[in-house]
C-alpha cells in the first residue's frame, strides 16, 4: 500500500525515523544500518512495508528493495513476525542472510537476539528456496584495529551530540570488534543512559 516515503528527515531515534511527507510525520521502524545512512534535516527516500495488525498499523523502512524482499521472506517462516524479521536484518545484511541460509550456518542466525537453535534451523529450512544465492561474495567481517570514526558520525546522524557519540564509542570499543558490533554496542550504551 505504501511503497516508499520521500521527504525531509524530522527526527531519528534508536529504532525509527520520522519523515515529513505531504504534511504528515511518518514514523518508520528501521534497522540501525538504515538509520545510520539518514541525517536530520536532509531529504530522504525510504523503501517501506506497511503492516496492519489487529492492534496496530506499522510502517517498516529499508535501505533498498532487496532488504524489503528479505524482510517479507523472513515473515513467511513459522513463528517469525515483523519485529523478529527486522532484528535479523539489523544483524545481517541481505547477502549475509542468504549466505547463512545457503550454508546452513545456524550459528550466524543465532547471533540475532531472540533466535535460538530451533528458530534458526527453521529459518534455514523454510528460506532455502526463497532467498536465492548471495548476490555478492560475502567477506567475513574483519575486525577493526581501532574504533572506526564513522561510527561516531553515524551516531551523530542518529541525533546524538558528537562528544557523547565519541565517548560512547570509546567506552564500548574492544580490540577485535567489527564496525557493526561497535555501532550496536554504542547504541545500547547510549540508549541505556536515557
TrEMBL record:
On the tree of life, the source organism's domain of life is: Bacteria
Compartmental location: Cytoplasm
The record's section on InterPro entries has:
DNA_helicase_Holl-junc_RuvA_I (IPR013849), Hlx-hairpin-Hlx_DNA-bd_motif (IPR003583), NA-bd_OB-fold (IPR012340), RuvA (IPR000085), RuvA_2-like (IPR010994), RuvA_C (IPR011114), RuvA_C_sf (IPR036267)
Keywords assigned: ATP-binding, Cytoplasm, DNA damage, DNA recombination, DNA repair, DNA-binding, Helicase, Hydrolase, Nucleotide-binding
Q: Which Pfam families match?
A: HHH_5 (PF14520), RuvA_C (PF07499), RuvA_N (PF01330)
Q: Which residues form a coiled coil?
A: none
Q: Which Gene3D superfamilies match?
A: 5' to 3' exonuclease, C-terminal subdomain, DNA helicase RuvA subunit, C-terminal domain, Nucleic acid-binding proteins
* GO MF annotations, alphabetized: ATP binding; four-way junction DNA binding; four-way junction helicase activity
Broad class of the protein's primary localization? cytoplasm
Helix-hairpin-helix DNA-binding motif class domain residues: 72-91, 107-126
Q: Where is this region: Domain III?
A: 150-194
* CC annotations in GO: cytoplasm; Holliday junction helicase complex; Holliday junction resolvase complex
GO BP terms in the entry = DNA recombination; DNA repair
Family stated for the protein in its record? Belongs to the RuvA family.
Q: What does this protein do?
A: The RuvA-RuvB-RuvC complex processes Holliday junction (HJ) DNA during genetic recombination and DNA repair, while the RuvA-RuvB complex plays an important role in the rescue of blocked DNA replication forks via replication fork reversal (RFR). RuvA specifically binds to HJ cruciform DNA, conferring on it an open structure. The RuvB hexamer acts as an ATP-dependent pump, pulling dsDNA into and through the RuvAB complex. HJ branch migration allows RuvC to scan DNA until it finds its consensus sequence, where it cleaves and resolves the cruciform DNA.
**NCBIfam families for the chain:** ruvA
Quaternary structure, per UniProt, is: Homotetramer. Forms an RuvA(8)-RuvB(12)-Holliday junction (HJ) complex. HJ DNA is sandwiched between 2 RuvA tetramers; dsDNA enters through RuvA and exits via RuvB. An RuvB hexamer assembles on each DNA strand where it exits the tetramer. Each RuvB hexamer is contacted by two RuvA subunits (via domain III) on 2 adjacent RuvB subunits; this complex drives branch migration. In the full resolvosome a probable DNA-RuvA(4)-RuvB(12)-RuvC(2) complex forms which resolves the HJ.
What UniProt notes about the protein's domains is:
Has three domains with a flexible linker between the domains II and III and assumes an 'L' shape. Domain III is highly mobile and contacts RuvB.
User: Which named protein is this?
Assistant: Holliday junction branch migration complex subunit RuvA
Species in which this protein is naturally found? Bowdeniella nasicola
Q: What is the lineage of its organism?
A: Bacteria, Bacillati, Actinomycetota, Actinomycetes, Actinomycetales
Amino acid at each position: 500500500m505504501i511503497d516508499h516515503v520521500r521527504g525531509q528527515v524530522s527526527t531519528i531515534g534508536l529504532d525509527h525515523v520520522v519523515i515529513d511527507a505531504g504534511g504528515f510525520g511518518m514514523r518508520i521502524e528501521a534497522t540501525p544500518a538504515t538509520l545510520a545512512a539518514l541525517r536530520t534535516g536532509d531529504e530522504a527516500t525510504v523503501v517501506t512495508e506497511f503492516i496492519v495488525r489487529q492492534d496496530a498499523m506499522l510502517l517498516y523502512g529499508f535501505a533498498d528493495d532487496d532488504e524489503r524482499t528479505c524482510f517479507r521472506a523472513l515473515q513467511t517462516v513459522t513463528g517469525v513476525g515483523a519485529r523478529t524479521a527486522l532484528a535479523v536484518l539489523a544483524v545481517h545484511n541481505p547477502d549475509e542472510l542468504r549466505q547463512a541460509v545457503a550454508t546452513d550456518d545456524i550459528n550466524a542466525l543465532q547471533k540475532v537476539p531472540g533466535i535460538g537453535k530451533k528458530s534458526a534451523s527453521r529459518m534455514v529450512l523454510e528460506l532455502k528456496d526463497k532467498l536465492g544465492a548471495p548476490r555478492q561474495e560475502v567477506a567475513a567481517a574483519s575486525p577493526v584495529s581501532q574504533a572506526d570514526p564513522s561510527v561516531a558520525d553515524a551516531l551523530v546522524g542518529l541525533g546524538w551530540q558528537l562528544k557523547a557519540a565519541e565517548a560512547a564509542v570509546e567506552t564500548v570499543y574492544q580490540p577485535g570488534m567489527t564496525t557493526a558490533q561497535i555501532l550496536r554496542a554504542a547504541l545500547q550504551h547510549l540508549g541505556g543512559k536515557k
